[in-house]
């Protein structure tokens, strides 16, 4: 089996390199794909080129033969067509055997690639991914939570995905990976980053499954670090005071408000209300009417309860779609977010 794979690799892998130079980027991208960023990318691109070239050759042959037959055998005025053609065993065998021989490497390379993508190594660095309308949340083993994905270069990374509401799909084109986040179950995908974006750039993350009105805005960034830089980042990311040491408590709350995905639904600008959740500008200290007919005053305990148990008190006129932050937020972070909301005025 390894010998067969090696033979197929020797045929397919050079195809990506054979593309015209103007199609490529120095980073390894091509005319068809973004720059290659993972260990999967080269093989997937090569298989694509193989199928593309085979399809193009057969397209040209079929069209050429069709046009030739049209030109030669078109019925002409005054000429009686009295020649009857029968089948050709040679042609039937040719157009059966040749495509079959070409389909074998397509299937084998696609099948082994599929197994590789869905068989993570045992020593993967594991990151939990939570999808929700309409943001991504990445949780690291040390407790760090961030709306952007940070990974070390050259280290296998396993993503475990879950959805808190509807079907989503994590898609990182540079890594050539896409995996659904399904409500009520966990799904996994893995990759190994092989290159870092240029300074100041990042790999784009999309949601590839329509999930509602703000689907197109469900974006995130993927940053690839050297291993030592990643270790420092993930350590600092677990502590807001280390991550943003110069910020005031209110500014830390504003940062967390965005990092936890609150801005996806809650607006703080009265001129731009969001129909999904209450506007928080000037809400502190006010009475809010709830869906069950009762009312509540917006203060410390209500803010904390809303973050940890968002379904306990749902504001009238809004759907119960707010995800819980239980287990994902510390008391200190709740305090910072409370300070930020309070700073928005009464």
Please supply descriptive tags for the structure shown above.
346 residues; Cytochrome Bc1 Complex, Chain D, domain 2; disordered N terminus; five-stranded mixed sheet; single chain; 12 strands; alpha+beta; Immunoglobulin-like
Characterise this structure.
This protein has 346 residues and is α+β, with helices and mostly antiparallel strands. The chain has 3 domains: 2-75 and 86-117, no CATH class; 125-238, Sandwich (Immunoglobulin-like), CATH 2.60.40.420; 244-343, Cytochrome Bc1 Complex, Chain D, domain 2 (Orthogonal Bundle), CATH 1.10.760. It contains 8 helices and 12 strands. It has helices at residues 2-17, 41-73, 89-117, 227-237, 240-243, 249-259, 300-308, 331-343; strands spanning 125-132, 135-139, 145-146, 149-152, 156-163, 168-172, 177-181, 187-192, 203-207, 220-225, 287-289, 295-297. Strand 2 (135-139) and strand 3 form a beta hairpin. It is elongated, with a radius of gyration of 28 Å. The termini are far apart. 24% of the residues are buried. Residues 1-5 and 15-28 have low confidence and may be disordered.
List the helices and strands and how they pair.
Blueprint: H1 2-17, H2 41-73, H3 89-117, E1 125-132, E2 135-139, E3 145-146, E4 149-152, E5 156-163, E6 168-172, E7 177-181, E8 187-192, E9 203-207, E10 220-225, H4 227-237, H5 240-243, H6 249-259, E11 287-289, E12 295-297, H7 300-308, H8 331-343
Parallel strand pairs: 1-5, 4-10
Antiparallel strand pairs: 1-2, 2-3, 5-8, 6-7, 6-9, 9-10, 11-12
């Amino acid at each position: 089996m390894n010998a067969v794979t090696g033979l197929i690799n020797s045929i397919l892998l050079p195809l990506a390199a054979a593309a015209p130079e103007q199609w490529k980027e120095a980073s390894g991208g091509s005319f068809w794909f973004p720059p290659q960023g993972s260990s999967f990318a080269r093989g997937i691109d090569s298989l694509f080129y193989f199928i593309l070239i085979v399809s193009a050759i057969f397209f040209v042959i079929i069209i050429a033969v069709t046009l030739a037959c049209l030109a030669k055998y078109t019925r002409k005025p005054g000429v009686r067509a009295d020649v009857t053609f029968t089948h050709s065993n040679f042609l039937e065998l040719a157009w059966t055997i040749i495509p079959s021989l070409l389909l074998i490497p397509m299937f084998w390379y696609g099948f082994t690639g599929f197994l590789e993508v869905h068989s993570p190594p045992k020593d993967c660095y594991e990151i939990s991914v939570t999808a929700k309308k309409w943001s991504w949340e990445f949780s690291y083993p040390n407790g760090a939570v961030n709306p952007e994905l940070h990974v070390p270069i050259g280290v296998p990374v396993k993503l475990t995905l879950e959805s808190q509401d509807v079907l989503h799909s994590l898609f990182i084109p540079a890594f050539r990976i896409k995996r659904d986040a399904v409500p009520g179950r966990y799904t996994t995908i893995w990759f190994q980053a092989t290159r870092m974006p240029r300074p100041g750039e990042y790999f784009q993350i999309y949601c590839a499954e329509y999930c509602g009105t703000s689907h197109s805005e469900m974006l995130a960034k993927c940053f690839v670090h050297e291993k030592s830089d990643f270790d420092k980042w993930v350590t600092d990311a677990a502590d807001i005071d280390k991550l943003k040491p110069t910020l005031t408590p209110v500014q830390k709350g504003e940062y967390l408000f965005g990092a936890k995905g609150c801005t996806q639904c809650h607006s703080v600008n009265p001129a731009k209300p969001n129909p999904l959740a209450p506007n928080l500008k000037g809400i502190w200290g006010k009475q809010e009417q709830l869906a069950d007919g009762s009312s509540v005053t917006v203060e410390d305990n209500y803010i904390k309860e809303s973050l940890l148990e968002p379904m306990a008190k749902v504001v009238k006129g809004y759907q119960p779609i707010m995800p819980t932050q239980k287990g994902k937020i510390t008391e200190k972070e709740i305090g910072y977010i409370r300070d930020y909301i309070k700073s928005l005025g009464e």
